[in-house]
Amino acid sequence: MSPSLSDTPALSRRGLLKFSLGASAFLATAGLGASLSGCSSSIPASGFSSLRGGDLLFLRALVPVMLDGAVAVEGMSDAVEGTLKSLDYNLDHLSPEMLKLTRQLFDVLGMAVTRGPLTGIWGSWENASGAEIRHFLDRWENSALGLLRMGHNSLLQLVMMAWYGRKESWAHCGYPGPPTV
Q1: pTM greater than 0.70
Q2: Sorting pLDDT into bands at 50, 70 and 90, what band is 5?
Q3: Cβ atoms within 10 A of the Cβ of 77, count?
């Protein structure tokens, strides 16, 4: 007697490993393809050292969602721009290899062919709602794929380090600032 569908697991460990390897290869290929094809310019946006125009489109949609609750609504615009400047400064001081990996992540999130399937945001980032971006972040945070969880952690750490390294963020978390010497 053959087992019924309910008797067999939906995805075995071997199947999950194969899927994860395939997804990793797809993401690496897409990022490399974007870099080699010129889809992702390595030229920084005006006024920035490392962040490119495509990165800014994505980050200007993401940062307000990540700072929600930590910044008053009326100060969000200034907080986003300040966070982007801090993030740019931090990226400019990364090792070349870490900057390359970060740019690959931004490329994958910026390309329409990879953005839709990976994030659930099928249109441009500028048109994505806060709820859609939160859903994308939750999806990556709780993904069965380690690569997506690593992507989520990278985005979270990059943005939070850029924000909480800024003086205007300190009051919200109760940090009095560095001691005077």
Answers
A1: yes
A2: very low
A3: 12
